[in-house]
Structure prediction request, 529 residues.
Amino acid sequence: MAKTSTKSITSWKNFHETGTWPAKLLLETQLERRQIMPDPMERYNDAAQEIQRLLQASLDTGEGFRALGSKWSLSNIAHHEERMHINQKMNLKIPISARDLHSDSGYDRRNLFLLQCGNVIKEISEYLFDLGKSLQTTGASNGQTIAGAISTGVHGSAIDVGSVQDCVVGLNLIVGPNPEDIVYVERSSKPALNDAFAEQLNARVIRNDDLFYAALVGLGSFGFIHGVVIEAEDCFLLHRHVKSIDKNLALQLADTMDFSALAAIIPEEIDQIRPYHYKIYVNPYRDDPNYIVEAWYKKPFHTEYPDPIPVISEALYLDIIKCFNKLIRSHSRELIPRMITILQDTAFPDPNESLIGPLKDLCWDAINQGRAFACSVGIDHADTSRALAALVELGRREGPVPGIFSMRFVKASAATLAFTKFPITCMMEIDGSGWDGSPTLISQQEYYERFIETLQANHIPFTIHWGKNAAWNFPGLLEHMYGNQAAQKWKTYRSALLGPDMAKVFSNDYLRTIGLDDYVGSFPPDLLA
Prediction:
């Protein structure tokens, strides 16, 4: 039988130390040993029973419950003041067989896998690689759990692919302690697996597009994500080019998504004009005539490529957070821009760099742990230049802020509350070190508020990455980003799936702050049909 260890705690903080919050219990479930229970589906279902026992305990004590992945979110989305469950030891991987496919499925079963919630992206990638497969996209690095990645909408910045959640075809949710509270959710318009597969999970099937898209980026609040069925693809390589190009051209490519001008700069890619991935780096405190850009091009897989890890491991902002933490404590307005310029060679990749490797190696380990700062907004790519100019001016006028800008571009997601909601979303990110305000330096909270006000004043529609720093209590923020209809739809489907008692169990301060914890008591009885 799966067993859960319980540890009493008084406080909890995330990986990047952006906050310390009160907490009561830390739970961690360990699967039954393979020697005792060799059938992976039996072990999977055994774990489901243990999670249901824990949910019953939450109900009995009137306490909340929150699943916890790798603690990478800089917001308090993963926190709960009462019970938090560590998922990482729940990491089964189960291939889908031909007999599991729905009769109307258009999927190749060889690309479908049931992944238990605690699987970390890195271990998924290695598992798939051994099978000649690959995830379609990941985040910029690979330490998130699969459940955490989709819950917060982690974006891969693959221009024509989408975010991590967009590769999910089915969700196995545990929404309560009763037998009928294990559900398998997928789209009715694009079914993947049959009822017999769901029966193996002891789950009832709900094929409903609106529920699927609401739960897909569920912010950890649509029940316990026990497993996801993802669609992988055959292994591929990515050729990564880094160039220093005229900044006006770099922004023109972003604003238009017309990459034909890159042919003269990267002539070896003349037969493949549109890259898989495009990224711009900006030091906001220098008026450089050129910007460093990355363009990655997708290639057929072969094994004769040099190991990219030695280069990639030097290109991940190795010590930028630690350096900032040590050197900006004086809060000097003059020191921060100088520090960013000094560290630019470390923070930005070499403009003459060219390497090739699989996705799993190019989106590699992020090793920094410390007081980080990361603010990430999604805007329509056509607004890239306008938004950059406005936000750089904000930082220069009211900062300086100890961070650098980067911009990545990703296909829209159909998930109801995906922050990648624009047809091609520019994810504009400011990454650096956390800081404290002073009489001469804007505080982080003030900066987050001014960040939103600046975009609003410039009439630039935006969203904010659910797992990043932000003024989440900004008045009317949710409705401004998504409109009343999308937010209400998300809350309605959550309410219909969970019921009032479990909706309360799966709520937390984060959900209450942004205004998504409301239980909607009136909805059509056949809403989930």
Remarks:
- The chain has a mean pLDDT of 92.
